[in-house]
Amino acid sequence: MEKKDEKILSYLNSIFYLNKSILLTGITEIKVNKFEKHFYNSVILLGENKKNEFFKRNVYRKYYLVPFGEFIPLKKGISYIFPFIKFPFISFKKGKYYQDQIVINGIRFSAIICYEVAFGERIRKNCKKNTDFLLVFSDDSWFGNSTEPWQHLQISRMRALELGRPLLHITNNGITAIISEVGEVKSKLVQFTDSSLCSEISSFSGFTPYSILGKYPTWILTIICIFFNLPVKKYKKH
Q1: Rounded to two decimals, what is the model's pTM?
Q2: Which of 32, 114, 143, 219 is the most buried (most CB within 10 A)?
Q3: Among candidates 41, 112, 44, 42, which has minimal Cα distance to 71?
Q4: DSSP 3-state of 60
Q5: Assigned CATH for 105-238
Q6: Contact residues for 108 (Cβ-Cβ < 8 A; gap 6+)
Q7: Dihedral pair phi/psi, residue 159, rounded to 5°
């Protein structure tokens, strides 16, 4: 972490702590060692305590990175084939596949960043029996007034239904929504509007059939359907 940024975060952390408030926020995390810097797309918690532990506990680091947005595929090969490209290729590093939940006052959240919500299998494996809520953080503003933010919201609804968990869909372009454990949108903000969203929602725990079995029943049913629809050649008896 850069020293100047660490001081700012420490200052903000103390303000939230003194005011008995907390803030979950997305941030570009920078880890510096003797040889290089590592960048992470992270979610951290401020105001939890006086200690500046926002990168040690209650932190989530994005696993599925966006090609050409957060990392350059085949970076070494591109530099070799196109040596005239002189600007540096800076890529984010991905977090771990399995990550700890974010815990706030005993309430457990499973965090998701951006289009990671489309990868249901990993979300299933990181959603524990005692997980209370799913959290989706995203920046959809660069898609403008298109259908993508709405598609993103629908995918989040599906994840909530699959795992039987309320989901908080948080974006910075207006489609911020609270989704129930059955995939219903309980409340949402109007797109491209500066506002806040307040609502009451109950937590849920336990398992659903999907959280236990995953995608395997779907694959089995698909194979069965393909098998019974294979053309069968009939032979006449002579």
Answers
A1: 0.85
A2: 114
A3: 41
A4: strand
A5: 3.60.110.10
A6: 101, 102, 128, 130, 131, 132, 133
A7: -65, -40
